[in-house]
Structures are given as C-alpha cells and as structure tokens.
Write a structure and sequence with these properties.
CATH superfamily of the largest domain: RNA polymerase II/Efflux pump adaptor protein, barrel-sandwich hybrid domain
Radius of gyration: 17 Å
Structural class: mainly beta
Distance between the termini: 39 Å
Largest sheet: 4 strands, antiparallel
Order of helices and strands: HEEEEEEEEEEEE
CATH architecture of the largest domain: Beta Barrel
Number of helices: 1
CATH class of the largest domain: Mainly Beta
C-alpha cells in the first residue's frame, strides 16, 4: 500500500460513519481510528520487526505574522504523510523562519516517512509569513505547512 492509497483510505474514513478500520496485508498493517471528525489517527506498521508505528493527526500553528492580502498568499502543502521537521537535525538551524525569503528549489522543511527523510523544496519565490505546523509533528498528505507571500 503506497502513500496515495493510504490517503484515499483516510479520505474515505473521514467521510464515512465508521469509527475504526484495520487492514492487514502481507507486508503492511494499517489501523485507522477516528477520535473526532477533524482528526483521524493512523498507525502504519511495516512487516519488518524494527518498524515503528507512524501516527498522523492534525497539528497546531507555530508562529503568527500580520496577514497580507489573501489573494497574494500561497500555501506550501505536504506531499506525503509523515513527521514534519523544521531543521535537518536537532543541532542544526531551521531551514526557514517567519520572514525568510524563499525561491524555487530552496528546502523549507524535511518530512520523515518510513524512516526516510524527504527534503521539501519551495515551488515559488516569496516570503514565509506563517508556519502552520509544530516541529516534530505528524502531518497528513496535502496538509498546509507554510503560508508564503508571493514575490
């Protein structure tokens, strides 16, 4: 089961009256429990004995800034399910802060998925005006991560 299939499952569960679903295949076990309408929790465990569950839930905002015109804002969204990190490591500087200038190809964060760290690069030029997710928080596919004022 790949990330897109898991996301389709989450979308289906969110719209259905089901409170809990578990799916087990030869190499993967997925358990989804809906605690509220807004935030289902997902555990994904690979068949490998060292694999740890990955929990996915809604995250709280990190920083606030004066709101620019909504038509000039771009939302950087998560391309996958995983854990959001603002820096490459605990002793490293954050990739971006509120007020940071970004350009296409600049890394804005890292998302860990299944023990792989994926750098997430900007697709546009602009300035970070709001960070929408706390560091080390789980994120869902297509979840907003940053608001960017377009250059």
């Amino acid at each position: 089961m790949d990330t897109k299939e898991i996301q389709r499952l989450l979308d289906y569960i969110a719209k259905s009256p089901l409170a809990e679903v578990s799916i087990e295949t030869e190499g993967l076990k997925v358990s989804v429990k809906k605690f509220s309408e807004a935030a289902p929790v997902v555990s994904v465990v690979a068949a490998a004995p060292a694999a740890a569950p990955v929990a996915v839930a809604a995250a709280a905002p990190v920083a606030a800034a004066p709101a620019p015109a909504a038509d000039n804002l771009y939302t950087v969204k998560s391309p996958m399910i995983g854990t959001f990190y603002r820096a490459a490591g605990p002793d490293k500087d954050n990739f971006v802060e509120v007020g940071s200038e970004i350009a296409p190809g600049k890394t804005v964060c890292v998302i860990e998925a299944m023990k792989l760290f994926n750098e997430i690069d900007s697709e546009i030029s602009g300035k970070i005006v709001k960070i929408l997710v706390d560091n080390a928080s789980p994120v869902e596919f297509d979840q907003p991560l940053f608001l960017v004022e377009k250059a």
